[in-house]
């Protein structure tokens, strides 16, 4: 069933807010109620909404899908402030809040219990199991869902709460809890907790009720409060975590803020506005604010005040941000002359504009966002539903007894802020700040090399310790792999290029060209040259055919088009004929007499494409990279590793090491490293009835893997844009390239981002473009 959402009342705030700057930013507010009704035994709390944008996976409609989570607070026999929560529920709206589905219990958030004699602990208990007894129960509370663009998933964050005999444990572990929404099943995944450093201060660390900031590429800045379980005073810090669509991994954290007043600082919320990060924090006596340039290292906190210097009056409850690209607002509760009957003055809910330089609230802009009706409104959420609307969601918390006499009935309010101009908010960043975080693995993978042998050991067993040693070892690896895969024909260093057709598109010239890419084959491709004087950096793009990369194929694979728009000369090539024949790759000198493994031969063809691009007067030959996705990712990887003229490379979900459990990491196929006489093996996974043939099983038997090729890139930088076949565990192989770069005196040369899906997306591609801009551009 769907509940009809009814409009409570609406009013307009149309006066320009000019106290900070002369602008015409304004919004109107429309309030409605999603659910209401109170039976005296429990009430809805923590109503917070997340949005799956229109057209995204799981929402192919033209409207945003709003998923609002709520939690029942059990009132019968509970002390005031006991926070006795039942499992999370959710309610959805498919029509921008006009109607809502009935709240549905999320079984994955049912309480988990410590069982006597069992070695299996509930989720989140491993941080401090000594604090728990048999019969103790845990669940997640203070949950906040929000869209994570890099993974195209709805990611919810909260923290754990522990009960003993239906009372909150005063000394307990606490962890950053998270779950992912399954759009097909319309339910939340089993929740997990972030694996934090094993330090006492992280044993009671949570991110409940807070606002986070998502960065391009998948990193998430999560503000948390933390303390040792036996201590009373919290500190606030921001954790950088990495989310690949499945697992939220800790990377690092910033400085810590606290004050020696009662419980210190806690329940932080973070936002990004016009180049800086803003952090608002709760204290028992006052609200506090701080600011940072990088989102991790914050200035000393200061108390929230109005612009006339008077205290804001907010205390012992949350504040959250409403962020428009042109204005920053704070939503809060405070003392006022007519709300002394409300618990901790937690209603009404106010909104006012913030002066981002002076870090105070502009009193003249203050408006009541949701009025008080006796019940408290201090636990609320903020979500950007669309560029035109931001919602504040809050449920009337029906404590203490008797609040209903003032008119409250556990209504779940939706306050829709409708902007007078679009709110196109994004984290402003340079190419360096976009790519920078992804040179560092998540903590769990730092230094891990798994089953991969060290490339820093010569065939005779001696170790590489100097750059000169590495030059000799590198030559040894090249000779070994050349002996295995076959020697390339002579490179075509003076290519003859035939111009087939020329057109002008947007701000660049497109040439359809033909050139010889092997001694006995020509190919056709597209050369895109941006308007304006050069020399420009260049990038070769490789795929099944050259049209996709210039914008004439599947979405988000148009690397050549996007890069030429950013000032690169691009050359798009592809194996059109062999793709059509379903033989793929390049079989040299012919299909029935293969002398070089086909994947290596693709690398040779791309090396000759480098000479085509380098011969152009518009191109700086020292600044040429290569990129490809999937099949093209394997191609780009072999080309860049085997041909040192490529200055850098990006490989999108290629499958960068052997992995026989992944059908798409199919190096055993005859068009990659498993060439053998026809008839070819049946395409698919290796089985006893369908074994691998050719070179590939020899490589496996000898214990070889592709990390031996990755290291040939050093010190040239490369990016792995990982998806379904290149998860974070690939850092085990990449760490060996980091070791080689360390010997050479270089750092920040090996990067990886991760997403759950094989297909690239706008966010993952933006990191690729930033990578090339950083290493090949003028930055």
From TrEMBL:
Signal sequence extent: 1-21
Lineage summary: Bacteria, Pseudomonadati, Planctomycetota, Planctomycetia, Pirellulales
Gene3D superfamilies: 2.120.10.10, alpha/beta hydrolase (3.40.50.1820)
Domain of life: Bacteria
UniProt keyword annotation of Signal present: yes
TM stretches of this protein: none
Keywords recorded for this protein, A-Z: Signal
Protein name: Alpha/beta hydrolase family protein
């Amino acid at each position: 069933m769907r509940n009809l959402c009814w409009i409570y009342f609406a009013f307009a705030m149309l006066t320009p807010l000019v106290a900070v700057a002369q602008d015409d930013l304004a919004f109107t507010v429309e309030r409605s109620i999603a659910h209401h009704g109170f039976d005296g035994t429990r009430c809805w709390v923590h109503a917070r909404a997340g949005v799956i944008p229109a057209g995204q996976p799981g929402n192919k409609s033209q409207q945003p899908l709003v998923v609002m989570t709520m939690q029942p607070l059990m009132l019968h026999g509970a002390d005031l402030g006991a926070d006795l929560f039942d499992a999370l529920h959710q309610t959805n709206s498919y029509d921008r809040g006009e109607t809502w589905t009935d709240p549905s219990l999320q079984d994955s958030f049912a309480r988990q219990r410590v069982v006597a004699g069992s070695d299996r602990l509930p989720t989140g208990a491993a941080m401090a199991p000594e604090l728990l007894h048999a019969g103790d129960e845990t669940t997640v509370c203070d949950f906040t869902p929000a869209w994570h663009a890099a993974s195209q998933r709805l990611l919810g964050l909260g923290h754990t709460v522990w009960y003993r005999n239906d009372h909150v444990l005063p000394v307990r572990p606490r962890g950053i809890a998270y779950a992912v929404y399954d759009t097909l099943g319309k339910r939340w995944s089993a929740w997990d907790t972030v694996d934090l450093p094993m330090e006492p201060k992280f044993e009671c660390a949570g991110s409940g009720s807070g606002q986070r900031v998502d960065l391009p590429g998948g990193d998430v800045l999560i503000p948390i409060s933390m303390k040792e379980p036996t201590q009373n005073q919290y500190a606030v810090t921001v954790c950088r975590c990495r989310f690949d669509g499945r697992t939220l991994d800790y990377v690092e954290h910033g400085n810590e803020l606290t004050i020696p007043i009662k419980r210190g600082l806690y329940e932080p919320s973070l936002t990004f506005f016009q180049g800086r990060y803003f952090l608002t924090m709760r204290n028992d006596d006052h609200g506090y604010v701080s600011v940072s340039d990088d989102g991790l290292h914050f200035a000393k906190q200061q108390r929230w005040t109005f612009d006339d210097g008077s205290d804001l009056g907010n205390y012992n409850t949350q504040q959250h941000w409403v962020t428009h690209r042109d204005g920053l607002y704070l939503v809060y509760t405070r003392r006022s002359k007519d709300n002394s009957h409300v618990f901790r003055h937690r209603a009404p809910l106010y909104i006012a504009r913030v002066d981002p330089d002076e870090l105070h609230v502009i009193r003249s802009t203050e408006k009541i966002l949701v009025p008080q009706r006796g019940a408290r409104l201090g636990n609320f959420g903020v979500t950007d539903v669309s560029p035109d609307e931001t919602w504040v969601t809050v449920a009337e918390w029906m404590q203490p007894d008797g609040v209903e006499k003032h008119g409250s009935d556990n209504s779940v309010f939706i306050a829709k802020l409708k902007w007078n101009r679009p709110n196109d908010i994004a984290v402003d960043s340079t190419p360096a700040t976009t790519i920078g975080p992804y040179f560092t693995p998540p903590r769990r993978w730092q230094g891990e090399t798994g089953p991969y042998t060290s490339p820093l050991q010569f065939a005779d067993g001696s170790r590489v310790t100097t750059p000169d040693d590495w030059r000799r070892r590198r030559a040894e690896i090249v000779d070994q792999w050349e002996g295995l895969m076959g020697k390339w024909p002579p490179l075509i260093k003076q290519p003859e290029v035939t111009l087939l057709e020329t057109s002008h598109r947007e701000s660049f010239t497109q040439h359809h060209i033909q050139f010889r890419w092997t001694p006995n084959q020509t190919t056709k491709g597209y050369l895109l040259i941006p308007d304006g004087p050069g020399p420009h950096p260049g990038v070769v793009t490789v795929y099944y055919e050259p049209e996709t990369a210039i914008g004439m194929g599947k979405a988000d694979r148009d690397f050549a088009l996007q890069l030429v728009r950013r000032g690169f000369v691009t050359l798009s090539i592809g194996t059109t004929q062999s793709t059509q024949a379903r033989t793929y790759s390049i079989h040299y000198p012919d299909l029935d007499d293969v002398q070089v493994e086909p994947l290596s031969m693709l690398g040779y063809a791309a090396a000759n494409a480098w000479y085509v691009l380098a011969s152009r007067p518009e191109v700086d030959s020292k600044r040429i990279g290569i990129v490809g996705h999937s099949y093209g990712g394997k191609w780009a990887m072999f080309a860049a590793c085997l041909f040192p003229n490529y200055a850098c490379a990006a490989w999108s979900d290629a499958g960068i090491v052997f992995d026989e459990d992944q059908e798409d990491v199919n190096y055993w196929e005859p068009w990659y490293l498993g060439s053998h006489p026809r008839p070819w093996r049946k395409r698919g996974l290796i089985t006893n009835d369908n074994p691998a043939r050719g070179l590939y099983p020899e490589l496996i038997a000898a214990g070889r893997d592709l990390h031996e090729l990755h290291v040939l890139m050093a010190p040239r930088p490369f990016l792995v844009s990982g998806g379904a076949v290149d998860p974070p565990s690939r850092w085990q192989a990449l760490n060996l390239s980091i070791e080689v770069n360390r010997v050479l005196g270089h750092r920040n040369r090996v990067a990886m981002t991760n997403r759950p899906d094989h297909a690239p997306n706008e966010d993952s591609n933006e990191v690729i473009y930033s990578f090339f801009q950083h290493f090949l551009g003028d930055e």
